[in-house]
Amino acid sequence: MTTNRQEEAQRYARLQEQYAGYQAAGLKLDLTRGKPATEQLDLSDTLDGILDGCYLLQDGTDVRNYGGITGIPEARQLGAEMLEVNPENVLAGGNSSLTLMYQYVSYMMRSRWQTDGGAPVKFICQVPGYDRHFTICEHFGIDMLPLPLLDTGPDMGRIEELVAADEQIKGIWCVPQYSNPTGHSYDEQTVKGFARLADTAVRDFRIFWDHAYAVHHLTDKPAPLANLMLAAQQTGHQDSVLMFASTSKITFAGAGLAFLATSTSELAAFVDFLGFQMIGFDKVNQLRHVKWLENITKINKHMEQHKAIIKPKFELVEKKLAEKLSGKNMASWTRPRGGYFVSLDTNPGLAMQVVELAAAAGVKLTPAGATFPYGKDPADTNIRIAPTYPAINELDTAMDVLVTCIELASLADSLRD
């Protein structure tokens, strides 16, 4: 046995002892979902009672009553400021932008995405990506075409090739700023490419622009993002753009507002579809959010408080990964400037093993493969780390367990060779 291999074997034995200690500790730590911490939710506690018995809009409308599928005008204005569009392009909904995405896919599947010979609708899905986008596709029987995400966004040349060659491709999922889970943001040329994409794609092709992290910055220099709606209006393709955002990670995750922005004609058609299933969203909640958040300036100020809570957690993740794994050729990871996640890649074939080892030591991670369509990461490398929810001392322990599991799996793989 060579000296290097002997050192690896000794290191592996020490790590096994350390791992056994974690197992014996009875840990119950959770890094599975990107949820706000309790301290973040506490920042919005004064939402309760802010209306103080006044339920009237500026025009005298009583929000306690029926009506208004597009949302109250004041909430539409707030969404317009978040998405940098005009209020007439915005629908203000309930607490979940994912619900609006689902409802819009349902609308298109029922009314406009008819394919030749009953062939399945297809979506381009950037990977690693958001598992709930993929779940919507699976529910509707939409075939998913994985496309690797680059540092500057998706490969627009490849997207144009795909949509030009296959008329069954009807949509693409995008998280353009601080992508889930990698934290990458699209550059200006990529946004301009999306604005032109309808030149190549079939009619009724849709860009699902999930702007979930529009105000979720971790640094004092936010990643810039060009305005897709403005660019699409300049190319005449605003009908192809669907922009989504919500306050779910701004105020109360379970009781926020969601927004959809698109062209006025598309919005009117979608509202007609919604009219068969509802009379209106929760306008009381919309009004209290408007009273509390007021405008984008106050939102940004509020998000500085969020940043103060979660930035140390991201710094801790980076510190632990760098201290334990840098220079060992065992893993690579992203260093996001915003959003809710860190994306980590193990050596090929080890992500599932790492997740299983961590679970056996009391640390739950998002299932390996969840960031790919159908839950299948072809290389079995990607792990999504969600640092925001646990207390920082719990995160500290969870990261110690995670890096130990990565080292164990990597050394075991090396010693097998």
Q: Would you mind describing this structure in some detail?
A:
This protein is 42% helix and 14% strand. The chain is of the alpha/beta class and 417 residues long. It folds into two domains: 3-31 and 300-416, Alpha-Beta Complex (Aspartate Aminotransferase, domain 1), CATH 3.90.1150.10; 56-294, Type I PLP-dependent aspartate aminotransferase-like (Major domain) (Aspartate Aminotransferase, domain 2, 3-Layer(aba) Sandwich). The strands form three sheets. Strands 2-9-8-7-6-3-4-5 form an eight-stranded mixed beta sheet, with helices on both faces. Helix 7 (188-196) crosses helix 8 and helix 12 (351-360) packs across helix 13 (392-416).
Describe the secondary structure blueprint for this structure.
Elements: H1 3-24, E1 29-31, H2 38-42, H3 73-83, E2 90-92, H4 97-111, E3 122-127, H5 131-140, E4 143-150, E5 153-154, H6 156-165, E6 169-174, H7 188-196, E7 206-210, H8 228-235, E8 241-246, E9 258-261, H9 264-274, H10 283-293, H11 296-325, E10 331-333, E11 342-346, H12 351-360, E12 363-365, E13 382-385, H13 392-416
Parallel strand pairs: 1-12, 3-4, 3-6, 6-7, 7-8
Antiparallel strand pairs: 2-9, 4-5, 8-9, 10-11, 11-13
Helix pairs in contact: 1-13, 4-5, 7-8, 11-13, 12-13
The rough form would be described as globular
**Secondary-structure element pattern, one letter each:** HEHHEHEHEEHEHEHEEHHHEEHEEH
Q: What would you give as the CATH superfamily of the largest domain?
A: Type I PLP-dependent aspartate aminotransferase-like (Major domain)
Low-confidence stretches: none
Distance between the termini: 12 Å
- At the first level of CATH, the class of the largest domain is Alpha Beta
CATH architecture of the largest domain: 3-Layer(aba) Sandwich
**Helix count, DSSP H or I runs of 4 or more residues:** 13
Radius of gyration: 23 Å
Strand order of the largest sheet: 2-9-8-7-6-3-4-5
- The share of residues in extended strands comes to 5-15%
